[in-house]
Amino acid sequence: MSKRDGRILEILTREHKVEVSDLAERLSVSSVTMRKDLDGLQEKGLVMREHGYALLANPNDVAGRLAYHYEAKLRIASRAAEFVSDGDTIMVESGSCCAILARRIAETKKHVTIVTNSEFIVSYLRDYSSVEVVLLGGNVQRDAQVTVGPFVRLCAEQFLVDNLFIGADGWVDGVGFTNADQMRAEAVRSMAASAGRVVVLTESEKFARYGAVLMRIEKPMAVVTDSDVSPEQRASVERTGVELIIA
């Protein structure tokens, strides 16, 4: 995926629907070039065209979200990977930051077992023999490529790990992290029951949002985020007892 494709996906993730001519002007290319870029992204299933507008084909698509703030996500993932040593068994939840973390671990660690409910991560790591990947069973959410439901809990109960790595869709001051999907939030809680600590990977912009479902994780927690987190947001996180780490 080109750098310009990444910028297109960043804009659409932030603004949801944008005129093709506006995208071309912002990225300093002709309308013809922009239409070609969008055609390529549409062939990959990431973008839809609609009466002169472009919009994300599926906001739950992990592959599409990887390009959004990719460099910041890579720094967050690289810092979070420092929690992992050769030979560890860890749990990793679904999401773009978590997928980049899993790839980073596969690139830099040896003999790590990654237990996940993300079908995307399983596919993302298929060429890496440095890690063993265990997919937790359950009902499949096809768009998000993730397993959810009671079987996730039953499978997760078979493991005991030091760290579970998760993403987040938002933050509520004085309460904690939130998720946009009830079933995925429940899967996180099921996995957290088998972990000694939960490490959240998220861009700082998520602290200005909130999802519909509270995580309510009763485990020691840390969050790895980028340097754009504000002093007020930092104080809000630290008041809840969550360790905040800047990547």
Annotate the secondary structure layout.
Layout: H1 3-15, E1 17-19, H2 20-26, H3 31-43, E2 47-50, E3 53-56, H4 62-66, H5 70-80, E4 89-92, H6 96-108, E5 112-116, H7 119-124, E6 131-135, E7 139-141, E8 146-148, H8 150-156, E9 161-166, E10 170-172, E11 176-179, H9 182-192, E12 195-201, E13 213-214, E14 221-225, H10 231-239, E15 243-246
Helix pairs in contact: 2-3, 5-6
Q: Compute the number of helices.
A: 10
**Strand order, largest beta sheet:** 6-5-4-9-12-14-15
> What is the overall pLDDT average?
92
Report helical residue fraction: 25-40%
- Count of distinct strands: 15
Share of β-strand residues: 25-35%
Structural class, judged by helices and strands? alpha/beta
- The radius of gyration computed from the alpha-carbon positions, rounded to a whole number of angstroms, is 18 Å
Which H/E pattern describes the elements? HEHHEEHHEHEHEEEHEEEHEEEHE
Distance between the termini: 24 Å
How is the biggest beta sheet arranged? 7 strands, parallel
Shape, principal axes of CA atoms: globular
Contiguous uncertain segments of 5+ residues: none
Compose a concise summary of this entry.
This protein has helices at residues 3-15, 20-26, 31-43, 62-66, 70-80, 96-108, 119-124, 150-156, 182-192, 231-239, and strands spanning 17-19, 47-50, 53-56, 89-92, 112-116, 131-135, 139-141, 146-148, 161-166, 170-172, 176-179, 195-201, 213-214, 221-225, 243-246. The chain is α/β, with parallel strands linked by helices. It is globular.
